[in-house]
Automatic annotation (TrEMBL):
Compartment annotation: Cell membrane
Name of this chain's protein: Amino acid ABC transporter permease
Family of this protein: Belongs to the binding-protein-dependent transport system permease family. HisMQ subfamily.
Residues that span the membrane, as ranges: 12-37, 58-79, 91-109, 190-216
Highest taxon listed in the record's lineage: Bacteria
Length: 224
């Protein structure tokens, strides 16, 4: 039943490694971009608040497939922006990471904003009374507590991101979903075996992540 794994025709581990790379790069970028967006959404500057709110509502409600295709068709094929990629393969990978960051950053933002709301207002007011600026209060007082409060929601965002990397197959990124599609076409007699292999692969990627970060969430939770 699993003879296709021994044929050497399919690089299953290589495809999942691309998935892992997509996840790691996109997670790092989404955390940074989501934090910036969260700062905008709670900023006292109306222009920043308006931009953050509009961006989150617009991008979060746009299908991820549309964003990924927009990066490929709009940035690369129309405007010629290749993000420094030397080949179409590298360019496709980087465009997929950009689309995933743009999309996932909105969910990171909302998770962080909920964490910011758990920080007592009195702490921020006390910090402002000591002469700290808004950004100093956010960086030194509010965000450290907010991150500790939202480890569990961010874990869910990371797991969703891992599964969302399959959308990168729409622009030809050679990750697990693209290989699965190829194997389904070529190994029709082993359809359930192919599904089983890739389902198990994603479980092995997401389950340890959930268990580990769930433990971290309990360890760093703010006691109030």
């Amino acid at each position: 039943m699993f003879d296709f794994l021994d044929s050497g025709q399919y690089d299953v581990l290589g495809a999942f490694w691309v998935t892992v790379q997509l996840t790691l790069y996109s997670a790092a970028g989404s955390l940074i971009w989501g934090t910036v967006l969260a700062g905008m959404r709670v900023s006292p500057v109306p222009l920043l608040r308006g931009f953050g709110t509009a961006y989150v509502h617009l991008v979060r409600n746009t299908p991820l497939t549309v964003l990924i295709l927009g990066c490929s068709l709009g940035l690369y094929q129309t405007l010629g922006i290749n993000l420094g990629g030397d080949t179409s393969k590298e360019t496709g990978f980087r465009l997929a990471v950009l689309g995933l960051i743009a999309y996932t950053g909105t969910f990171v933002c909302e998770a962080l904003r909920s964490g910011i709301n758990t920080v007592p207002v009195g702490q921020a007011e006390a910090a402002r009374a000591l002469g700290l600026s808004f950004f100093q209060v956010l960086r030194l007082i509010v965000l450290p507590q907010a991150f500790r409060a939202v480890v569990a929601p961010l874990t869910n965002v990371l797991i969703a991101l891992t599964k969302n990397t399959t959308v990168a197959a729409t622009i030809g990124v050679a990750e697990a979903a693209l290989l699965m599609k190829e194997m389904i076409e070529n190994e029709a007699d082993a359809l359930f075996a192919v599904f089983g292999v890739f389902a198990l692969g994603f479980v092995l990627l997401t389950l340890p992540t959930g268990l580990l970060l769930g433990w971290v969430s309990k360890r760093v939770a703010v006691k109030r």
